[in-house]
């Protein structure tokens, strides 16, 4: 029983110590990076750029999006159902897909 108490104390002290400090450091870097992006209004935001890519036409009801052909640059595989009329959007990269209907 004494063993689990020691373990809890170890976990608690290591958790409170390093991660809190590192997290605030990371969030500061992220907000600085975002602020830099927002300053330069001549550049388009990533969302504007991805919305300029026309919806990708696909045969069949389901598409598997990986973000990029190179797995190192992509994202986890996302299976997207194309049953609706409007383009379906990948939740990771924002690419849009539509089902191509052959008549």
UniProtKB/TrEMBL annotation:
Gene Ontology CC annotations of this record: mitochondrion
InterPro entries linked: Znf_CHCC
Name of the protein described by the UniProt record: Zinc finger CHCC-type domain-containing protein
Pfam families: zf-CHCC
Lineage: Eukaryota, Viridiplantae, Streptophyta, Embryophyta, Tracheophyta
Organism field: Hibiscus trionum
GO BP annotations, alphabetical order: mitochondrial electron transport, NADH to ubiquinone
Source superkingdom: Eukaryota
Domain Zinc finger CHCC-type residue range list: 60-97
